[in-house]
């Protein structure tokens, strides 16, 4: 009985220390969207030069959202999967895959007769 009381007291103390307003645990720090700045490279096909371009990615793990920014154009991706290993999402003509360990990215755009792939690396924006 005494052991059970001590366990319950310990649990109460720990839960009060790890509350939402505690300096030991800030839930809001985990809930913020993350912005990535990415440089994509498209390998040139026959007779074409290699091209590079800058894009932005914003992902929110809590809301399970992934936004793709190409200049001023914003596209919200559907079917988003965010894990500790990767981030993926797509629309009807665009798919994005990001490896979280290296921040490597692949972007594919689809047309009726052709698929265009670009590869690159992202950096978290501070």
Describe it for me?
The protein is α+β, with helices and mostly antiparallel strands and 126 residues long. It has two domains: 1-28, no CATH class; 32-124, Roll (PH-domain like). Helices cover 17% and strands 51% of the residues. It contains two helices and nine strands; from the N terminus they run ααβββββββββ. The protein has helices at 2-17, 27-31, and strands at 34-42, 51-60, 65-70, 73-76, 78-82, 86-90, 94-99, 104-111, 114-124. The chain has a nine-stranded antiparallel beta sheet, with no helix packed on it. β5 and β6 (86-90) form a beta hairpin.
Q: What is the count of DSSP helices, taking H or I runs of 4+ residues?
A: 2
Shape: globular
DSSP strand count: 9
Mean of pLDDT = 81
Tell me the Rg in angstroms: 21 Å
Give the N-terminus to C-terminus distance in angstroms. 52 Å
Task: Note the main sheet.
Answer: 9 strands, antiparallel
Topology-level CATH name of the largest domain: PH-domain like
């Amino acid at each position: 009985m005494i052991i059970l009381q001590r366990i319950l007291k310990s649990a109460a103390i720990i839960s009060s220390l790890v509350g939402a307003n505690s300096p030991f645990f800030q839930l809001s720090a985990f809930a913020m969207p993350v912005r990535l700045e990415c440089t994509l490279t498209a390998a040139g096909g026959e007779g074409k030069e290699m091209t590079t371009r800058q894009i932005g990615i914003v992902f929110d793990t809590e809301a399970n959202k992934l936004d793709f920014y190409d200049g001023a154009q914003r596209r919200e991706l559907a079917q988003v999967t965010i894990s500790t290993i990767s981030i993926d999402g797509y629309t009807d003509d665009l798919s994005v895959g990001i490896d979280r360990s290296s921040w490597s990215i692949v972007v594919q755009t689809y047309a009726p007769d052709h698929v265009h792939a670009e590869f690159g690396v992202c950096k978290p924006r501070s």
